[in-house]
Structure formats: structure tokens, C-alpha cells
UniProtKB/TrEMBL annotation:
Name of the protein this chain belongs to: HTH luxR-type domain-containing protein
GO biological process: regulation of DNA-templated transcription
Signal sequence region: none
Record bears the keyword rRNA-binding: no
Originating organism: Microbispora hainanensis
């Protein structure tokens, strides 16, 4: 109740009801398929009981998260999720994201786990994060003697004698088992009430499962047999499966089913039947000897396999029953693992690893199972385990099986942040004769992408052109890889139009579905980078969104950090530092969960740059130190140029331009590196020219200007290159006209930077009105920096103004307070207004061209500034402080 009050729900003291919309209670068990409930819940009744066993299908859960968000936007919800120890790593990761993204809604999560079960490290990580974010951890200790006595008194209606308390002791203080035990024994007449005391009729202390067995013994033999078969099928089961297992028509089972229902052992559950309690189910199963139970599971698995269709239902039984060398069962596990590889890779891992355990090393199918397990481990981000298994299998693989494992290993190396090793592995594979064409295509794609990642384009250019010249000899995967490398080369060569042509052709092929799923998002990610370089920010955001949807729909968890990181850099260039930081933090957090170290480095470098712009040098240095200690190549598509530039910005901010020059030396001296630097970050041309002049290295400055002018000449259809060239030339040649033309740029930081450069030049110029013009341009720069929160740059401009005898306060407004309505930024106020108008986070994200992650971050900050905990309170404050926002003004 306290949690609901914190979420803006108010309890009526008299009626114990919630005011406003009714409270919906949604309960689920992880083992039964939490995400399935989100899709199937009855929208009117809130009945979430009709579950089927399934696990979260990777990042497709976003669609279900949207359904949940729509629901909690209209009514308070208590979502109780039980048996969390059964959750796979992807579900735990998704829960961590959902609790964060939906934190502003009247939604209370109640998550339960059993100590000593499940993935301890991931569960502890999730619970520690939730607790750090304000969740309350409640540990249910075993009931003490006094509590046990109170429960017994409450259930049996009298104080218990010692023999009854001794009986209660067999459940070890578990309240559920205690109540269940007492109720069953009470119904069996085990207790006797006299003189306000309750004692046992018999001194015998029955075991818990014996109670269920006693109830079974009262049933006819055929009915007991039917229940044993049903128990093998599961806690819930279909009558069709039961009839087929017994070899009888369903109609002949009706009398026995009625007896079992009347005895209170099973009950109807939608289209199926289920046992009333886990204890009853376990009691039934406990009557079957282990060897017989395994044989029955085997028979059910074979029955379901012979039926045809999906092998997944059979797999649950085969996991229980398959024995070493059981060819039919192992093939069933193989089929099931392949089926769920995309939708639930964690399940695929479990199935494939179990099949490997049961396979004879001499079994020719062993290597195929190993390859499936390696691929599944890779997709869910368990890269080190995947690599270990791949290398172990390669140690004894024949020439027939080794190529597929080497292909898998090259992918692992790529996503582990080791592109050079990935390229080497792919090249070794391609040097072999007579490898299957599909594997050759995958190896060629890996080689091309590894070279793109390393920015080693010359090495791959000739081979890529050879692939395109003889397309009929290569797979679509190889052709796509070649097109992507040539698109990147065209970008670096300054031929933007050619790059777009290659990328669009690659997209046509990937959209046809003829390449590996994990290869498909890269064309759109590279397209977003190209649009960003051309300052077409809306088109870049659309490409990122399309790539994100593809990653989610294909279950490519290993690539999950990328969209947030791409979006963070896009926000960075647009001067939206809060949004950039939120996306970078999101991408970094996901990458840390998955262990994809290259992506962690990207997130840290973005955060370091933002800290530098905000004037927090200490934080920037800490971020740099952290990503330097992360042993991996820079993240995909960003390359070493990006990270070198960020490190140089921090070094220059620390007052060490010489060290900044040393960090950037390869960029200053290599023409391709310079071109890519200017394409990666549009402000590098002017900034690096200015840095070179600061250490009196005019040749380096001239090299930057020459490269900027080359890009401008080769891309006449993209005027931003001419503007960037004018900015760099204006700095080098002290040309006020060039600097004046450079001010007309879409990026706020670059626009302010050009105004500052022009103001500084005018301040050093003699003339009657030069000083006044300098102040005007410096004021323009100051306003631009302060609007985007570039505090360190604003401080530098204020120092320039003071040198001209002009003092300016922080911005043109009073200092923003730390708390209260006036502490909110313009973006935060805009978000608050849309919240007050009833929009969900995702609707706000679409309206403001942000991601839901960013909207959630703004909400958390607003809640802290306003000392509130719910959207309802925020809407009230908006209506009081700024009613025009509610009206949409």
C-alpha cells in the first residue's frame, strides 16, 4: 500500500478501495511465461491466468512493454512476478530495462525469487540495481516458533498441543506449506479439538507428500494411472495429449477425469486441465519410480515428435529422459534448438548443451550440435563461453566440420571487440579449398566488416570490387559485405552520392532475407552514419529506428546496445547533451550486461565528451580511464578515430595541447584518417586546425584545411562540407569573411564555435567598430554555448568578453535553481506538458523525436527536482505552474 501511495494512488480509509481508476492485479510466474501474459491478458477483467510455457523472445518484448505501458497509463497496476529464479538472462535484462522505463507510471512491481536457485549472479545484480533505485527488499525468513503457533491456532481454531507443533515442524517454517499441510490434515480428520486445545488423533507424523498420496489411494486404480500419465505431461495438460498417451479416445477418459476433479486433484484451466497445487502434482509424480518416470517422459517426447510440427513441446520431455546415444531423442533436441534459436536463444542454449552432454564424441552430429550451441551463446551475449566451446570443438574437428565452427568463432571475435583476430580467422577459412558456399559467404562478410571496423579499407577494396565483378560466384552475404565496405570507402574518399548508392543496394539485398539474420541491421546502421555525416539528422534517426526494430524482431540481443549508442552520438552533434547522455548510459548498461566490450567503450567515450563540454573535467578523465582499461577495439562503426578525438578533447581541456596533438598524430599525417575524422565528427576540421595552430604546427593545420576543401569539392550536393571548409580556412588564414559564412550551420555547438572564432579574430583587429563587432559575435557564441549546456566553452567566451571590458552573467536568465519548477530545463518542461496531456512515454518519444530511454531519464530527473514520485503529481504541478502546457500551447 505504501508503494501505491508513492505512485500517486490514494487509499480510501473506510472502504479500502483506490480512488479514481480501479486497481488491476496482474500475477505471473516466470516459469509459465511472463511475457506471454503481457500479450494475452484479458483487457477487461485483468485475468492473466491463461499462460503457456514460453520465455521472453529476446528483445521482441518491447512490443509487450508498449501494451503494458498503455494499460498503466489508464489505471494503477500491481504486477506480481513469481519464481524469478527460473528466468533466463535475457528476461532478467528485460526486467531491468522495463522497471526503469516504466518507473514514472502507477505501476508497482512485486518480484519474488527463491534463494539458492537460478542464476545467482544475474539475480543478485538485478535485485541490487532495483534496491539502489529505491525498491524495498523483503527477505521472508522461516516462521519462528511463536509465528508457527499463531498460524496453527488461526487455521485449526484452537491452541496446538506439542504433537501438533511437532507436525508443523516438518515444513521448516514455510508458511505456504504449513497452511496447505494443516488444511489437508484437517480435512482428513487427523486433528481432535477438546478444551480449547487441538491435538492429533494419531501419533504418526505423516510426510507432506504422503498427504497427497493418501488422497490418491482413495481413487480407483485406472484413475490413479490416468493422473500419473497426466503428471508426466506437466502441471497443466491437454486432454488430447492424455488420450493419445493412454491410447484411448478422449470420451472414454471422461469418468476418470470427473473422479479426479471431484477428488480435488485436478481442475479445468481454460483449454486444458491442471493440478490444483504443486504439492498434489509432485505427490502424483512421486508415486512413479524414477526409471519408469524417465521412460514415460521418453514415450511422450517420441509421441509429440511423431505428431509433427514444432519439436519444442517434445524437448521438455526429452530433456528429462534422453540418454547417451539416444539418436531419436537427440535429433528431437536438435530440431527444437534450431527452432527456438531466434525466438528464445537462451532456451536454444539449454537444449543444445544438453544434447551435447548426451552425445557420444564419435557421433557425427556432435559438431553440428556444438555449432548450434556456439551460435546461441553468441546471440545472447555469452561470448567467452561461446569462444571456449568453439575452440574446444575445433581441437578435434575434422576438415568437414571445422569450417562451420571457424565461421562461428570469427563472429564471436568480431563482437568481442577483436576485429583483427576476426579478420585473420575469416581469411584462414577463405584460404581453404572446397568449403561450402554459404560458409564462404559468411566468412567474406565477416572479413569485410572486420576491415570496416578497423578502418582498413584499402586492404578490402580490391577484394570487394572483385566480389561485385563476379556476383554469380558469391553469396548475397558476401555481396552485402562488399557493398558495405565500398560504401564506407566512398565516404572516406569524399564521394557521398556513391556511398548512398552502395548502401541502398545493400539494403535491397538484406531486406530480401537471403543473408544471415545477424548481418541484416548493419546496412541501416551504416546508412544512419552516412545521413549523420551529411547533417540529415531526421533521416539518420529513422535509419537507427529501423535498425533497432530489426534487431528486436530478429532477437539479436548481442547487438542490442547499438541503436542507443548511435542515437547518443546523433543527439551529441545536435547539441542535446541530456538526451545524448541518457542514450549513452542506456547503451553502455546493456553492453555491460552482455559483455560486449567495444560497445562499452563507445558509451564511455560519449559520456566523457559530454562531461568535458559541461566543464566537469574530473568526470571526463574518469570516463577516459575506464574505457582505456576496457580491453577491446573501439565499437563498431565508430572506429579508433572517434575515441582518439575524444581523448584529445579531454587532454586539451586539461591544458595539454601537446598531448592532444600526440594522440591525433596519425590523423594529422594520414589522408584517409583525416577524411574519416571530418566525416565522423563535423566539428573536427575547425577544432583540429585550431589545435595545430596552438602548438605552432602550421603544416598540420594546413593538412586539415586541404582535406576539408577536398571533401567540399567532391560533394557539391552537400553544402555542409563547404561550410566546414570555410570554418577551418578562416581559422588558418584569419579570414573574417570565411568565418562569417561558417556561422550558418545546423549544429548549435559548431555555430557557436564559428561565432567565437570570428569574435576572437575581430577582437585582435584594429578599427573603430572592431571591438563592438567582436562583442556582438562573442555574445552570440556565449548564448549558443549556454543554450546547449556547454559550460566550459561558455566560461572561455566570458573570459574573452572580460578582456574586452564586458562582463556577462550566466546566460540571459537568472541562475537556474536546483529544485522546484524553475529548475526544469526547456526539454523537461516540454516532456512534463505532454505527460499532463495524458501521453505515454513512447508517444512523447515519437512527438519529440527522442527515444523512450531518454524520456524516462528526463522523468527521473524531474521527479528528483520536484520531490515527487508519480505522473499524477507531475500533471498537477504542470497545471498549477504552467497551464498553457496542458492546453498544448
Amino acid at each position: 500500500m505504501t508503494a501505491f501511495r508513492q505512485r500517486g494512488c490514494h487509499e480510501d480509509e473506510d472502504t479500502a478501495r483506490f480512488s479514481g481508476p480501479r486497481l488491476t492485479w496482474l500475477a505471473a510466474r516466470v516459469i509459465d511465461g511472463f511475457m506471454g501474459h503481457l500479450a494475452d491478458a484479458d483487457r477487461e477483467t485483468g485475468d492473466w491466468s491463461g499462460f503457456c510455457r514460453s520465455s521472453w523472445p529476446g528483445w521482441r518484448g518491447r512490443a509487450r512493454e508498449r501494451r503494458l505501458e498503455k494499460r498503466v497509463a489508464h489505471e494503477p497496476v500491481l504486477l506480481a512476478l513469481d519464481d524469478l529464479h527460473w528466468a533466463d538472462p535475457i528476461t532478467l535484462l528485460a526486467l531491468r530495462a522495463m522497471t526503469r522505463e516504466l518507473a514514472s507510471y502507477p505501476l508497482v512491481w512485486m518480484l519474488t525469487r527463491t534463494i539458492g536457485s537460478g542464476d545467482w549472479s544475474r539475480l543478485n545484480c538485478l535485485f541490487h540495481v532495483l534496491e539502489r533505485n529505491g525498491a524495498t527488499r523483503i527477505t521472508l525468513e522461516p516462521l519462528d516458533e511463536r509465528a508457527v503457533e499463531d498460524v496453527v491456532t488461526d487455521v485449526l481454531g484452537a491452541k496446538p498441543e506439542p504433537d501438533v507443533l511437532a507436525l508443523a515442524g516438518i515444513v521448516d517454517g514455510n508458511p505456504f506449506l504449513l497452511v496447505d499441510l494443516l488444511e489437508k490434515l484437517k480435512s482428513e480428520g487427523v486433528f481432535q479439538l477438546a478444551d480449547d486445545r487441538v491435538r492429533m488423533v494419531s501419533a504418526r507424523l505423516p510426510q507432506v507428500r504422503a498427504i497427497g498420496r493418501e488422497r490418491l489411494e482413495g481413487l480407483p486404480v485406472r484413475t490413479r494411472y490416468l493422473l500419473q500419465c497426466a503428471g508426466i505431461l506437466g502441471h497443466s495438460f491437454s486432454v488430447r495429449d492424455l488420450a493419445e498417451m493412454l491410447g484411448e479416445p478422449a470420451s472414454t477418459l471422461l469418468p476418470m477425469l470427473e473422479e479426479a476433479i471431484s477428488a480435488g486433484i485436478i481442475k479445468p484451466a481454460g483449454d486444458e486441465l491442471s493440478f490444483r497445487h504443486d504439492l498434489l502434482w509432485q505427490a502424483v509424480i512421486g508415486t512413479i519410480p524414477d526409471s519408469v518416470r524417465r521412460a514415460m517422459h521418453h514415450d511422450v517426447g517420441e509421441m509429440l515428435l511423431k505428431r509433427g510440427g514444432s519439436a519444442v513441446p517434445a524437448a521438455a520431455h526429452l530433456l528429462h529422459s534422453a540418454t547417451r546415444g539416444d539418436a531419436s531423442a537427440l535429433l528431437g533436441l536438435d530440431r527444437a534448438a534450431q527452432e527456438v534459436l531466434r525466438s528464445s536463444p537462451q532456451t536454444a542454449v539449454d537444449l543444445a548443451m544438453r544434447a551435447l552432454e548426451l552425445s557420444d564424441p564419435a557421433d557425427p552430429e556432435w559438431f553440428g550440435r556444438a555449432a548450434t550451441a556456439v551460435n546461441a551463446l553468441t546471440v545472447i551475449g555469452r561470448l567467452s563461453e561461446a569462444a571456449d566451446l568453439a575452440r574446444s570443438a575445433l581441437g578435434r574437428a575434422s576438415s568437414l566440420h571445422a569450417p562451420r565452427l571457424r565461421c562461428a568463432l570469427s563472429h564471436i571475435l568480431l563482437w568481442s571487440g577483436r576485429p583483427a583476430d576476426a579478420v585473420s580467422e575469416a581469411e584462414n577459412l577463405l584460404a581453404q579449398q572446397d568449403i561450402p558456399s554459404d560458409l564462404r559467404g559468411i566468412a567474406e562478410w565477416t572479413m569485410f566488416w572486420g576491415l570496416i571496423w578497423q578502418n582498413d579499407l584499402r586492404k578490402g577494396r580490391q577484394r570487394a570490387e572483385a566480389v561485385l565483378a563476379h556476383r554469380e560466384r558469391h553469396t548475397d552475404a558476401a555481396v552485402v559485405g562488399a557493398l558495405l565496405l565500398l560504401a564506407r570507402f566512398a565516404m572516406v574518399d569524399g564521394r557521398g552520392a556513391d556511398s548512398f548508392t552502395h548502401l541502398r543496394e545493400a539494403l535491397l539485398i538484406t531486406d530480401s532475407g537471403t543473408v544471415e539474420a545477424v548481418q541484416r541491421p548493419y546496412a541501416r546502421l551504416l546508412l544512419s552514419l552516412q545521413y549523420r555525416s551529411m547533417r540529415q539528422f531526421d533521416a539518420a534517426d529513422i535509419a537507427i529506428q529501423a535498425a533497432e526494430e530489426e534487431i528486436e524482431s530478429l532477437g539479436l540481443t548481442v547487438l542490442a546496445p547499438q541503436p542507443a549508442l548511435f542515437r547518443s552520438v546523433l543527439h551529441l552533434i545536435a547539441g542535446r547533451y541530456d538526451d545524448a547522455a541518457a542514450e549513452a548510459q542506456t547503451g553502455k548498461t546493456i553492453a555491460e550486461e552482455l559483455g560486449t566490450h567495444g560497445f562499452i567503450r563507445v558509451g564511455l567515450s560519449v559520456l566523457a565528451f559530454i562531461a568535458m563540454r559541461r566543464g566537469d573535467i574530473d568526470a571526463a578523465v574518469r570516463y577516459i580511464e575506464r574505457f582505456q582499461s576496457t580491453h577491446a577495439a573501439p565499437g563498431m562503426l565508430f572506429g579508433p578515430v572517434w575515441e582518439k578525438w575524444v581523448m584529445a578533447v579531454v587532454a586539451e581541456g586539461q591544458g595539454d595541447p601537446g598531448r592532444a596533438i600526440d594522440i591525433l598524430r596519425t590523423i594529422y599525417t594520414d589522408e584517409e584518417e583525416r577524411r574519416w575524422a571530418l566525416l565522423t565528427m563535423p566539428l573536427t576540421a575547425a577544432w583540429m586546425t585550431r589545435l595545430a595552430l596552438a602548438v605552432e604546427n602550421r603544416p598540420y593545420a594546413q593538412a586539415m584545411v586541404d582535406t576539408a576543401e577536398h571533401l567540399a569539392r567532391n560533394n557539391p550536393d552537400f553544402p555542409m562540407f563547404a561550410t566546414a571548409s570555410a570554418h577551418a580556412r578562416g581559422i588558418l588564414c584569419a579570414d573574417p569573411d570565411a568565418l562569417a559564412s561558417a556561422i550558418d550551420q545546423p549544429e548549435p555547438w559548431i555555430r557557436a564555435s564559428a561565432a567565437e572564432d570570428l569574435g576572437a579574430l575581430l577582437a585582435a583587429t584594429s578599427g573603430t567598430d572592431a571591438a563592438a563587432k567582436a562583442v556582438d559575435k562573442l555574445d552570440q557564441a556565449l548564448d549558443g554555448y549556454e543554450q546547449i549546456g556547454a559550460l566550459s566553452d561558455a566560461a572561455r567566451v566570458r573570459a574573452r568578453l572580460r578582456a574586452l571590458g564586458v562582463r556577462r552573467r550566466h546566460w540571459n536568465q537568472p541562475q537556474r535553481p536546483t529544485f522546484g519548477w524553475e529548475s526544469l530545463t526547456e526539454t523537461e518542461r516540454a516532456v512534463a506538458g505532454l505527460i499532463a496531456r495524458g501521453m505515454t512515454n513512447r508517444q512523447i518519444a515519437q512527438r519529440m523525436f527522442l527515444s523512450p530511454h531518454t524520456v524516462s531519464t528526463h522523468l527521473r530527473r524531474m521527479f528528483g527536482k520536484l520531490d515527487i514520485a508519480s505522473r499524477t503529481e507531475l500533471a498537477r504541478i504542470v497545471a498549477e505552474e504552467c497551464p498553457e502546457l496542458v492546453k498544448g500551447a
